[in-house]
Amino acid sequence: MNKNSLWFDERPRHLGWLLLLLPVLAVLLVAVGTNLWRDQAPRVAVPAVAALHPGPAAAMPVVLPNRPGVRADGRGTAASARPSLVTCPYQQLDLVVPNGTAQRACVATTRVLQSGDLRSYVLEPQGVSDWTLRIDSGDGRVMAASLSAPGRGDYRCEEDTCAGFSIGPRDAHGGRTLVVSQAVLTADDGAAMRLSANLKAPGDQQEADLACSEPGIAIVERSGAVLTLCPSGGGGVVRLEHERRIFSLRGSAGDTLLVGVDAAGAVDFVQIGALECQGLACSGATTQPGGDPASESGRRFSFSGTTVTDGLRGGAAALLNGSAVLPPF
């Protein structure tokens, strides 16, 4: 028997092994094909993972609870929370009380009082506020100021310690603006109050007690500001300069009008503040003696378009109209 005949004799056994291996080969082919397909599928981008130990710039802030009355601003910095301040219907005083707390006091419109040469601006409480402010002035500057409230003390400043107070020029209606900028007022025990305000004071003609009993002299500045001079509010004084007599008419607001009259009785000099005219430039200014020639009291001064100027200030000027009587002195 040759070898070929032996292999043919064993074919049934070889075929059986082959049949047994075919399922295994099929499973292997399926597995290999699946892996190949997965390897070729598109990869999805995976976000980069942050470093486990970020530097100081990348550190996340730790927010801790704030103390009462303290808030955090946009950068996370703690800052004191300011209480919201009320809105006042008329005028307001912004205060920093001795313990450092900011407060707002509402006050009414400004009242103006006159006592001789002293002019006082009084602002009384309005609504639930209880602070009263009084500003005393003379010759256009602040002489003293006081801020008081029942049971809360009396704070004052006088003369040079009233830094921060200023009185503005007159507006077209004769009113003024009182500006208080971080002024410090102190109590008897040394406690200090800081005050800021922007207040309006009415003109004399808007106050019944200050309005002229007679028409008075209207002084209109080139800027439009108006002053009405009422000499009855202050004593008249006369002095001699060679053959000229100088009469002084002092208004209730402290403004003084000087009028010079020559030997012939003509007005040849007018001055108010830094504005003046002399000689023929004082056109429109006249004077008539009073009922008692022996006393200059009662002398009347009249002005009709009289212009006074200040050559040193480049054309500053004012126009005078009206009349006034020299009061007793």
Q: Can you give a write-up of this model?
A:
The protein starts with a helix and ends with a strand. With 329 residues, the chain is mainly beta. The chain is elongated, with a radius of gyration of 47 Å. The strands form five sheets. A five-stranded antiparallel β-sheet has the order 4-3-12-11-10, with no helix packed on it. The chain has helices at 3-9, 11-40, and strands at 70-72, 78-80, 91-96, 102-107, 111-115, 118-123, 132-138, 141-149, 153-158, 165-167, 176-186, 192-201, 216-221, 226-229, 237-241, 244-250, 256-261, 267-272, 275-278, 285-288, 300-310, 316-325. Helix content is 11%, strand content 42%.
Q: What is the structure about, briefly put?
A:
The chain has 329 residues and is mostly beta strands. The chain is built from 2 helices and 22 strands. Strand 5 and strand 6 form a beta hairpin.
Features:
329 residues, mainly beta, five-stranded antiparallel beta sheet, 11% helix
Structural class: mainly beta
Q: C-alpha Rg, in Å?
A: 47 Å
Separation of the first and last Cα atoms: 173 Å
Q: Number of helix segments?
A: 2
% residues in beta strands: 35-45%
What's the shape?
elongated
- What is the H-and-E element order? HHEEEEEEEEEEEEEEEEEEEEEE
The helicity comes to 10-25%
**Low-pLDDT residue spans:** 44-52
Topology of helices and strands:
Layout: H1 3-9, H2 11-40, E1 70-72, E2 78-80, E3 91-96, E4 102-107, E5 111-115, E6 118-123, E7 132-138, E8 141-149, E9 153-158, E10 165-167, E11 176-186, E12 192-201, E13 216-221, E14 226-229, E15 237-241, E16 244-250, E17 256-261, E18 267-272, E19 275-278, E20 285-288, E21 300-310, E22 316-325
Antiparallel strand pairs: 1-2, 3-4, 3-12, 5-6, 6-7, 7-8, 8-9, 10-11, 11-12, 13-14, 13-22, 15-16, 16-17, 17-18, 18-19, 20-21, 21-22
